[in-house]
Amino acid sequence: MTATATPPTIQPDGRVVAVAGEGAAPWRRGLTRRRVLWVVLIAATVGAYLGFRTGGAADSDDAAAFRFFTDVRNWVDENRDTSPLFLYGFNYLRLGVRLLVDAVQAGLYGLGFAGLVAAAGAVALVLAGWRTALVAVGGFLAFGFLGLWAESVDTLVLTTSAVLLAVVIGVPIGVLAARVNWVSAILRPVLDVMQIMPTFAYLAPMTLLFLIGEPAAVIATLIYAVPATIRITELGIREVSPTTVEAATALGSTSRQLLTKVRLPMARPTIVLAVNQTIMMALSMVVITALIDAPGLGQNIIRALERVNVGAAFDAGLAIVIMAVVLDRITTGAARRRPAAPARHQRPTAANGVERVGAGRRDRWRAAGGRNRWAVAAGTLVVVVVLAVLPISEDLPHFSFAVPVNELTGWIELHWYDGTEWVKNVVSAGLLDPLEGVLTSTPWWLFVLVVAGFGTMASGVRAAVIAALAAAGIAGLGLWQHAMQTLATVLVTIVLTMAVGIVLGVWSARHDWFAAGLRPVLDAAQTMPSFVYLLPALALFGASRFTAIVAGFVYAFPPVVRLVDRGLRDVPAAVVEAAVSAGSTPRQLLWKVQLPMARGGLLLAANQGIVMVLAMVVLGGLVGAGALGYDVVAGFSQREDFGKGLAAGFAIVLLGILLDRLTQGFHHAKGPR
Amino acid sequence: MMRLRTVASAALILSLTACGGATSGAGESTPSAGAKGTVKLAVNPWVGYESDAAVVGYLLEKKLGYTVEKKELKEEISWQGFETGEVDAILENWGHADLKKTYIEQKKVAVEAGSTGNTGVIGWYVPQWMADQYPDITDYKNLNKYAGLFKTSESKGKGQLLGGDPSYVTNDVALINNLKLDYTVVFSGSEAAIIKAAQQAGAQKKPLLFYFYEPQWLFAQEKFARIKLPPYTAGCDADPKKVACDYPDYDLDKIVSKKFADANSTAYQLIKNFKWTNDDQNLVSDYLTNQGMSADQAAEKWVNEHEATWKPWIPAGS
Amino acid sequence: MTSTITVEHLWKVFGPKPERVVGTELADLPRAELRARTGCLAAVRDVSFAVEAGEVFVVMGLSGSGKSTLVRCLTRLIEPTSGEISIDGEAVRAMNARRLRDLRRHRVAMVFQHFGLLPHRSVLDNVAYGLEIQGLGRAERHRRAGEMLTLVGLDGHENQYPEQLSGGMQQRVGLARALAIDPAVLLFDEPFSALDPLIRRDMQTEVRRLHAEVGKTLVFITHDLAEALTLGDRIAVLRDGDVVQIGTPEDLVGAPADDYVADFVRDVPRSDVLTLRWIMRDPLDGETCEDQPLPATTVIRDAVPRILRAKLPVQVVDGDRPVGVVDADRLLPALISHHRQVPA
C-alpha cells in the first residue's frame, strides 16, 4: 500500500529535483539554536499542560456534526427515488457497475471449474512464466480442495470488477497528475482521505448512496483501491528519465507521441506494479464488503466469526491468501518481464560478468519465450476452451484445516493466557494508561497549539498548519475524548510495531535465509483478513485496547519489516565496503552506518505504519478498544448513531492527516512500497 | 453462490435512459413473490437467527419447493434490503421501533408477520461458578462488594461490565450511573468478543460480568447466572438517561417486505405461521455451533424429530 | 629489506564451486572458455608480487582485468580462492575475524573510487570514523581528525557534510580518513578516476606530496597509464587476471614484456619516462666529449637542452663511472618516437 508520495518537482527548465536535498544544510547549521527551541517548547508545553489540564469530560452523544450527518442521511433516504441527483446520477452508476459485475461473473462462471483453472494457468504462463503458471493452477485447484470454489470465484468476480474500474479510472488520472502539477496538488489530499478513511466508515455512506449488494461493494472497493493506482501511475510517469524525454523531444516528438511512445512504455513496469497494489488492496476490501451483502469468502469469514469458529474462518482466510499470492505472483512477474527483444543484445561486460552468467541463460529463455509467447498463448487458449466445454466439476475431495486450527488455538488460549495477560497488563498500565491520561486531560486548544509548535519545528510551517487544522477539526467534530483515546492506542501500536519491525527488518536484511523464510509470513500477515486472527487474539488478551494493538501490529508490521529491509539493503555498497575496510564490527556497521543511512526508509516505514495502524482502529472497536473505532462500528450498526459514526470516521481521517503531516518533515521523498 | 443474472440490465439501462432517471430499485431482480421462485432471507449476525433461517429455509426448499437465498446482513442493512428488493424476510427481529417506523410506517416497504414465539431476554450475567462461590453476587445491590474481582486493564480501577455488539439495545451506562455501581462499561464491540470472554470465564474460572441475552446457543454449552436488577415496569425505560430498571422481555417477531406479503405466496404464509420456543431454537443452535453441522443438516435433524411442531406451519393445500 | 606485502600464487575465482578450478587443468583455460565450461570467472589468476616498505606499487589494467578484485583480496574484503598473502610477515588468510579487523583498523587503510563517505556524518566525523570504531574518545579522535584535514588541505570544512563538497574535496576526506588511523599501508582503488582531469592532477600531486611527507607503503590501483607512470615506483600490468609484467615505469616503456604492454605504452612520450640509460651508446674510440657529464638517471626530456646545445656528445655517468655517451642523433628518435601511432 502506498502512503502519500511526494513526487520530485520539475523545475521550469525541465530538471527534476528531488525535494530531499534542499534545506538540509541550514537544518544542520542551526542545530544548537534548534535544540534550545525544542527545550523551550517542551517546557512551555509541560507548563501549559499542568496549568490547564482538564478532568476530561466525556463526549456528548449529540454534537452539531452528528446532527448534520444524520440530516444528510435522512434527506438521502427521502429523496432517493425523486432527486435528480439519484435518478440521473448515483442510480445509474449503480446500474453501470451492476452491468460490469454481471459481465465479469458470466465470463468467469462460463468457463466452468476446469476452464477457469486452466485460464488462470494460461494467463500466468503468458504474463509471468511457467513457474507462476504452476502456482496459479495449484492455487485455483486449492479453492476446490478447500470446498470454497464458488465463494472464491465470487470474490474473484468482485475483485476483478473493482480492479478493472480502478485501472480504467486510475491510470489516466495518474498520467494527468504526473503531467499537470495542479491536478496532482488537488488530488493529493483527496487521495489521503480516501486511503486513511477506515473501510467501515465508507460502508455506511456506501449503502446510503448505492444501497446494498455487489455494486455498492465494488464501488467501496474501488474507492479503497484506486488511490494506489493513481499514485503509483503518477510516480511511474514522473520517474521516466528526463534525458530520454529530452532526446525524444529533440527528435521532434509531439506531446502525444511523447506520451504513447516514450512515457507510457517506459513507465510500464511501474504501472503494472500499480495494478498489483490495486489488486492487493481490493482483495482486502472485498472481504469486508461482505457486511453489505457482497457474496464470496467474506461471508464465510463473517459467519465463522459469529460462531466463534476460528478454524472455519481460517479456511476462508487461507483461500484469500492463496488468491492474493497467485494474483501477486502473476502481476509482479508481468512487471519484471522485460520487453523480449533487447535481451539478446545485452552483452555481459567482464566486470559484472559473474552475475550476468546466470542472467544470460534466463535472457535466452525469455527471448525464446518472447518469440513463442503467442504460440504458447494460442495453445493454452485451445486447452482452456476444451476444458471449459468439458463437464468437469469442482467437486474435489475436501480438505479443511478447521479442526487442527481450532485445536491449536484452543491449546494456545488455554496455556498462554497467563503470559499474555501479564503482557497486556504491563503495556496497558505502563504505557497506554499514562499516555491516554495525559492526552485526554489536555484541553483541545492546547493540543492544537502543541501540534502547531512541534509541527513547525519538525516539518515546517505548512505541514504544521495543516496538522493543527486537522486537530482543531477533530475538536469541531465533537469527539475529542474518543479521538485522544484512539490516538494513545495508535501511538503505542506504532511504537511496538516499529520496535519489532526494525529488529526483524535488520535480521532480514542481513540474512538472506531469514528473509526468504519471513517472506511468506509477511505475505500471509498482510493478506490474511484480520477477522481471522481477531478471535485468538481476543481469547488471549480479552476485549481490550491491547487486542486492538495486537491486531494493528499484525496488520502493520509486514510493510515496516519490508521497508526496513529495503532501506538497509539500499545503503550503497561502496559505503558499506569502506566501513568494513576500516575494520567495523557487524554491530558498528549496523549502528553507525546502515541504520543512520536507512533513516529515510525507517521514517517511511513509520509513516506507512501509521496509515496501516489507523486502518485497524475500527477493527479495534470490534474487540473492546472502544473510542473512535467503536463509534464507527456503532454508527454502522445503529440507525440513531449514524451521524456519530460518520463523524468518528472523519475524526480518524483527521488523525491520520495530523500524524502524516507531523512525520512528513523528517523525510520529504516518499514513494510506494 | 452468486446467482447468474442475465445481462439484460444493459437493455434496462437503455430503456431507463429513454424514459429518464433510474430509481433505487432499478436493475435489481424483481421480488420473487408469487410463483415458486426465490425467497431471500436476511440472516442477522447471531446464531439463534441462523437457526430460524436454517429451519424456515429447509422447509421452504424441501417442503414447498422454493429456492432460498440467505444473505448475511446486519439488522440495519437488512431493513434497507426491503427497499431494494434484496431481502424478502427478517425472521427474528428484536424490537427496533425506529426501523419499524421508518420502513413500515413511512416508506411502507415492509410489514410485520407476527411473533416467532421466542422471548428475547436481555440482562447482566456472571458465569455459574461465580454464583456458586459468591451466592449473593446475583443481586445488583451486592455488586459493589465484588467490584474488585472484575477489575481489568480496561476498567480504570473499577469493576468491568463487558458490553456487547453495538447493534444491541443497551442501557448499561445509565444503569451503572443510576444504580450507583462502582463499575465501568467496556464495549466489547462484537458478539464474538463477548462469547469468547464468556467461554473463557466459564472454562478458566475467570470472573466476568457481562451483558448477554437469550435465546443464545452458548446457553446450551455453558451455564450463566443472571443478575437481578430492579424489576422492569412499563415505562421505566422511557428516558434513556434515567433508566434504573432491568431490561424488558422482547417478543421477537418477523418482518417481511410488503411486496412479498402482498403476493401472499405459500412462502409468505409459512413464514407468517412459523412459531417455536426458545428451547427449539437453542437446540438447533447447538447443532450448528457445537456439533459442527451445516444449516441444512441441523434443520434436517430437527425437522425429522419435531414434525408436530412444524406441521402446522405448512400452509393448507400445499 | 623485507617486503611489507607479499602475494604468492593468488587466485580469485567467482562462480559455482570455485575451488575446483585452481590447480587443475581448468586453471590453464583461457578466461572465456573457462566461463563457458564451468560458469566460473577467474578474476585473479596466479598472481605473485612483493611490495617493499615505503614503495608506491601501482596495479594497472583495463576494467575487468581483476585489479579491483586483487586489491580487495589483500585485506580479504573479497575472500581469495587460494594463494598466500602476508602483510608485515603475517599471513592474512590465516587471520581470524578479530585479527583481521585489527589489521584493517590499525595497519591497512583504503581509499575508494566512489569515496564511500557517510552522508549522515560531518566531514570531521567521517575522518574520525576509523578512530571511533577503535574506541578512541571523542576529543582525541576529533583532534587527530582535525590534523588530518589540515594535512589534506581541508581546514575549515570540518562541519560540512560530504554532499556539500566537490568530488575532489570528498576524496580528500576519504584520504584523510585513511590517514587518520596512521596505517603502515594505504590501498587506493582507482581513487581519482571519478574526478575531473584537472582535479585528478592536483590529487596525484597531493598523493606524491603525502607520500613524501608521511612515507607510507602505497598500493595504487588505476586504469590510467599516465597516472601509473607518474606515481608508481613499480607497476604491475594486469590483463584478464594475469600479471603481464612487473617493473619500473622505465622498464614498461623501454622494454615492454609483450605486445599487449607495448600497445599500452605506445602513446607515452618516451622522452618523459626513459632516462639516458636507454639511449646512450658506447663511446667511439678516442671520441671527445663535453666537460660536464650527465647522470644516467636523467630523464631524456630534461637532458634535451644540454645535448642539443652541446657540440660534442655528452658523457653519461653512473656515479663517477662513465657508462656511455649521448648525442643529438640518439636523442631525436626518442623525442619523436611516440608519434609512431599515426597511421602510416
UniProtKB/TrEMBL annotation, chain A:
SUPFAM superfamilies to which the protein is assigned, alphabetical: MetI-like
Keywords linked to the UniProt accession: Cell membrane, Membrane, Transmembrane, Transmembrane helix, Transport
Listed GO CC annotations: ATP-binding cassette (ABC) transporter complex
InterPro entries: MetI-like, MetI-like_sf
Topological category with respect to the lipid bilayer: Multi-pass membrane protein
MF GO annotations: amine transmembrane transporter activity; carnitine transmembrane transporter activity
Every ABC transmembrane type-1 domain range: 152-331, 483-663
Tagged with keyword Transmembrane helix: yes
Keyword Protease in record: no
Transmembrane segments: 36-52, 85-101, 108-127, 133-150, 162-182, 202-226, 271-292, 312-330, 374-393, 444-475, 487-510, 530-557, 602-625, 645-663
GO biological process: choline transport; glycine betaine transport
Subcellular location: Cell membrane; Membrane
Domain of life: Bacteria
Annotated family: Belongs to the binding-protein-dependent transport system permease family.
Protein name: Glycine/betaine ABC transporter permease
UniProt organism field: Paractinoplanes toevensis
Automatic annotation (TrEMBL), chain B:
A Pfam family it matches: OpuAC
GO MF terms, alphabetically ordered: transmembrane transporter activity
InterPro entries referenced in this protein's UniProt entry, alphabetically: ABC_Gly_betaine_transp_sub-bd (IPR007210)
Keyword Signal attributed: yes
Signal sequence, start to end: 1-20
A GO CC annotation given for this chain: ATP-binding cassette (ABC) transporter complex
Residue ranges of every copy of the ABC-type glycine betaine transport system substrate-binding domain listed in the record: 38-305
Record key words, sorted: Signal
Matching SUPFAM superfamilies: Periplasmic binding protein-like II
Matching CDD domains: PBP2_BCP_2
Protein name as it appears in the record: Glycine/betaine-binding protein
UniProtKB/TrEMBL annotation, chain C:
Top-rank taxon: Bacteria
GO terms of molecular function: ATP binding; ATP hydrolysis activity
Gene Ontology CC: membrane
Gene Ontology biological process terms in this record: glycine betaine transport; response to osmotic stress
Pfam assignment, any one: ABC_tran
Keywords, in A-Z order: ATP-binding, CBS domain, Nucleotide-binding, Transport
Residue span(s) of domain ABC transporter: 24-265
InterPro entries associated with the record: AAA+_ATPase, ABC_osmolyte_uptake_ATP-bind, ABC_transporter-like_ATP-bd, ABC_transporter-like_CS, Gly-betaine_transp_ATP-bd, P-loop_NTPase
Family, per entry: Belongs to the ABC transporter superfamily.
Name used for this protein in its record: Glycine/betaine ABC transporter ATP-binding protein
The species this protein was found in: Paractinoplanes toevensis
